[in-house]
Protein 1
Amino acid sequence: MPTPATHEFKTELKQLLDIIVHSLYTKREIFLRELISNAADAIDKLRFSALTQPDLAAGDTDYRIHLTADAAAGTLMISDNGIGMTRDEVIENLGTIARSGTRQFIETLKAANATNRPELIGQFGVGFYASFMAADRVTVITRSATPGAAAVKWESDGQGSFAVEDAQRAGRGTDVILHLREDARDFVQEYRLRQVIRQYSDFIEHPVQMEVEVERDGKKLKETQTLNSRKAIWLKGKSEVKPEEYDEFYQQVSRDSEKPAKVIHMAAEGAMEFKALMFVPAKRPFDFFWREPKAGLQLYVRRVLISHECEELLPQYLRFIKGVVDSSDLPLNVSREMLQHNPILTRIRKNLVNRIVKSLEEMKTEESEKYTQFFGEFGVILKEGISGDFENRTRIADLLLIESTRTEPGKFTSLPDYVKAMPADQKEILYLVGETREQLDGSPYVEAFRAKNQEVLLFTDPIDEFLIDSLGEYQGKHLKAIDRGQVDSDSSDEKIKTRTTELKSLLELIKAKLSGLKEVRYTSRLKDSAACLVADEHGMSAHMERLMKRVGKSEEGQSAPRILELNPDHALVQAMEKLYQKNPTDDRVQEIAAVLHDQAVIAEGSRVSDPAAFARRVNALLVNGIGA
Ligand code: ADP
Ligand code: MG
């Protein structure tokens, strides 16, 4: 027999294993969940392939997962008769970690304190490698279902390398043998295994079996028992399922350790037959944003798992929903390719979306606090539906929670409520986009609207600008950015008109001296502030411009020309006018204009181009004013 070949683990995996091996675990039992889920996956893969290539199953269709504990040896073996692995597959699958977000996960783990690590590892599901939480040596003996494939043995102590050599195994499938650590020997005990299976793997469809000792008529004998209940609770009627069963099922499909925020259990009958059990999670998984945006629903056809993450069942913006769908209309031997653009799935999807949106609507009206919490976790994902789901966009718009000049920070209004409260003469829905609520509250743009007691919606999510762009209007009312275009009343305001005529040459001078301005004009929109910058009606807002710069779509310093608006009632503006009227070439006129401009830049949340010059000018003015 050839000597075993030693292979190094890939770098990321090495780092991960190092953390796993050197951490103390309170929740180490999740290793069993991971190994059983791998065994179940392997069986599902085989069963699925055997639908089209029956010889792969080779007559053994008694699918099961078997546990063998040996107290004397301190080992626990998890065996399955699933698809198995070839030598190349073993090296590829058990030597690398291919999941997206692994690097970020490792960083998060390093940063987390030791007590939080098990929770994180549990949620991320490091899969097979969780074995090293309980074992100091792991042996895998596997044989692929591919006809003629030889068995192979993989072994490692989790310290950086693994060995692979030829082996013997009677049929297809995989045995994972854990050489348990001294302090993890409880996993050879029947009660402990029962407890863990019940908690984490109860709804697994395949039986998880174990040989146990029982007493019959005073005699002790061995008997194979199934440890999991295998309940397909989604097939039951609502009244037959207990709330805790829903919670447990949710925790098993989602890896979440909390309860779901909402359960959606539905059965469609008639023209279309399917059952769905879906959940709105209460909390965003910690790796939600660095994981690939994957669908959260599993597809079954008459209890047979067809796809773990079926992209076709839900649109992207509902990817936070977890659960299962079981269809009776699809053929069992449906291929993964057939799932794409499948008319049956399209109809199911339409139904599911409708139902989920309805549930969110109910939650919003009936459980407002819970809904607010939900929106804080997933609102930013739901918002994608505004541009992504034309059919439901109005309903999704109704579901948005938005801060406004009338809500306290952290409290919300909504579009329907905003429109209801609109005064009869207000034609447009007013809004402002920026980085933080604080910045928006202090912004000069909202001053006049506040004075007129008109409500302005305040948006602070990076996605909001795109959302508003694609929404455009709501209930026939145009969405109007208050930092864009002219204030309606300015064109008819007498004071503004005369001032503009009298001081036309000053406005022109400022425009000529300050670069990058499209126009300089007076406005009635300001109350306390001296000046502000506005974009053209169709121009890009300052916020959008900053976003574009951040994603590298626009060069630093290459801004669209802005309009500088001056408050005719402000003392500094009036002082500048006086100086100008006395002597149009007085240097201080330009200095004040430059300060007004930079103040406006700061107020819109951008950076002044020359902060040192700004400070110098302000100081000069202050010294002048104090007269010291
Ligand atoms: P994941 O299950 O998320 O892919 P794991 O670390 O749990 O990640 O497993 C890595 C891979 O190893 C699996 O994708 C599968 O290809 C293979 N594997 C693990 N356990 C088994 C098994 N019991 N039978 C067949 N293949 C397995
Ligand atoms: Mg796995």
Note: The mean pLDDT is 89.
Protein 2
Amino acid sequence: MSYQALLDAVIKGDIKTAKEETLKAVDAGQNAQDILDQGLIEAMNVVGDRFSKGAIFVPQMLRSAKTMQECVEVLKPHFQENAMTTKGNIVLGTVKGDLHDIGKNQVRMMLEGAGFNIIDLGVDVAPEVFVNNIKEAKADVLGMSALLSTTMPSMTHKIKELADSGLRDTVKVIIGGAPVTRKYAEDIGADSYASDAGAAVHETKKLLNIT
Ligand code: B1M
């Protein structure tokens, strides 16, 4: 079955049509995981790429992410319990002392759209809270956001805290936020950096060797 109409609706952010197309696919006997992977996630991959290239802007990206989330709600009852496969667990948060979360929330939505399970710790997250959640969730990736040049250095402390807790080899670290650069990420020993939410998906997949 072609999911083109569903893809188009998610890309356009047309919630009504996207939900109808999702239901149509379910009624046609399509597997919920296939609808998720080949319809919804595929559409969000297109959206992420367009956003990264500057072909679409924040409102369109958020609208598509919301459309995807609404369709996931339609699909949920059609998954066997806990059968929705995740591409990986990601602990995400804005670092201590920093209350900016608009960009971090975009990153969360795009990663969710790409099929990752996100443990979003919110803003002003202390190093030990990150570490405890990484342990509890057996996280594959830690994502940190910082918008202030004064809070950026706290990312270094978190990476050190991970090393002290023996977790550095078990979790990949990706960082972002307006003042953060790839050079800074390299300097503090993070595994990756992303300049926007679309790039965050791309970089996270690279970290986990997901094609
Ligand atoms: Co603040 N603020 N702010 N602010 N604020 C900035 C960041 C600032 C640049 C404004 C300025 O002076 N021109 C400046 C920082 C200067 C600096 O340190 N370099 C600043 C300041 C100084 C402050 C206060 C100190 C102001 C004061 O009280 N004197 C204060 C600090 C509060 C605190 O955090 N402790 C403060 C407060 C606030 C508000 C609460 C009013 C509000 C935040 C509301 C909220 O987030 N819920 C706010 C806002 C809105 C901004 C601006 C205007 C917009 C930020 C934003 O949301 N951008 C900002 C100025 C600006 O950027 N033009 C500013 C849109 C968002 C989509 O982009 O967050 O960069 P961004 O996210 C991008 C990428 O960076 C990337 O993806 C997103 C795009 O897809 N990305 C990641 C982000 N996180 C990522 C993580 C990743 C990967 C990519 O991997 C995990």
Note: The pocket of CO-5-methoxybenzimidazolylcobamide is lined by residues 58, 97-104, 106-107, 143-145, 147-150, 174-179, 194, 196-197, 200 (CB under 6 Å).
